[in-house]
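Q: What does the assembled structure look like for these inputs?
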Amino acid sequence: MSPATIRSTPERLSRPQQVAEAIKSWVMENGWGPGVRLPSESELIERFGMSKGTIREAIRILEAQGLVKSRTGPGGGVFVHQVSEERATALLGNYFYFEHLTIDDIYQIRQALEPELAASLAGSLSEAQLAALEEVMTRYCEPARSAEEEREQHVASLRFHALLAEMSGNALLRFLIRFTANMLAEITVSRRLYAQPNRDLWSSGFDYQLRLIAALREGDAVAAREILSEHMKNAHRLMLMQETVLTQRFLPENEII
Amino acid sequence: MSPATIRSTPERLSRPQQVAEAIKSWVMENGWGPGVRLPSESELIERFGMSKGTIREAIRILEAQGLVKSRTGPGGGVFVHQVSEERATALLGNYFYFEHLTIDDIYQIRQALEPELAASLAGSLSEAQLAALEEVMTRYCEPARSAEEEREQHVASLRFHALLAEMSGNALLRFLIRFTANMLAEITVSRRLYAQPNRDLWSSGFDYQLRLIAALREGDAVAAREILSEHMKNAHRLMLMQETVLTQRFLPENEII
DNA sequence: CCCAATTTGTTCGTATGTATC
DNA sequence: AGATACATACGAACAAATTGG
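A:
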């Protein structure tokens, strides 16, 4: 029984798409995982009774989705492949290329998720993990002396958040936190917001993260949530200020996307 | 050639992949949006100096990502296409096919996002929008008399959440709420949790949503957040109960994914 | 209703590249 | 180095779909 395979718009599929779907559901039904080798091109040609070109296009479709990978040579072929986080991020990023997210949009999500992450980790981190977080923090324990140093501290600060996300057992939460950080970075780069690094932003981050680690170590979920919530609010506010400053300086009339 | 030029993972791209990337960045640089027609196959063959098959595979790659759509006939061709939400959902779903989310994982996200959505909408909805929400609620204002009715009420209840998400101006929030609901539905279907519809779950939903609409109308963001937070906790709890019951009944020894 | 033009969709035969033994 | 097995690429032809006369 196909439970929810409804197509509102009949959308006749091309043959390569049909083949791709067939292979996909075939792999799922058999429960095949990464590394399993699919039949060779010539075998698929026989099995589906279609030409080489059609089969090859079908495999390209699966490859574009990150579901398979093909290798040439003896012992080569098409293999089931675990969709990488990079691929998933890129594919989802395509969707938002057309949706035009604002800084407010992204921070609304980060504001909800990051404190939740901190609260869920409180008391459940090993001393090794806490030490790893502290290690990253040493990269920006003292005020930056140059623009170069400031930039390095910024990167390290982002690594802190990425590392924290990595410690969550929730793959969805991990992905979303990294995705939102990624989208934010993309926007700041495209708008050149990084051109005006804000010393207050990264230096205040140090203080927040110091208190966060303490709360995590003590297992104080409420405090951890509150600290990260404040941190997000502050970062959001500072980023909007940068945006305003930049807009006033360079874009007095026109709007840039 | 010195053998020292080792490629750790330079990931040599196949020609169709190169062409796909070239077309993609070409479209972005020119700022072309949905509806713009790309050069025809034959033109692309000339331009890139490659065979028809290679060019077609490149277009399939873009099509699989939802970035273009092709039509046959005069006036046909390959057109830039806005990635649909359905496509984005499916592509991201592929990623989590390998990551094995639990009900807890998904509810951790819903628990964070749904209350945030409610709070952000409080006081900003038009009377027409509020009326639309109330209209959906009339579908399950009285207790279900049959399993069929109960199922319909369940669907209507999900529509309520989808409609609420649709009213957010934040495209990322909209997408995430619908995505998480979708993943949850997929899991419940694959585990047949729907086989045991829980009357308490959907009837209690009615009360929550009634109070939610009142809070939204009054512009009480704090109350709206709290109501949806409680609703999520309750739904999460009930769903875990169903899972436990089902596991005890049908899966005494083995684990099902 | 059919016909013609246009564009993508599909097939087949052949040749080339690449990794393994 | 050579043989083998596999994907990759090319070119010419034909089929199908859509539009307009």
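Residues 14-16, 50-54, 71-76 of chain B lie near DNA strand D (CB under 10 Å from a C1').
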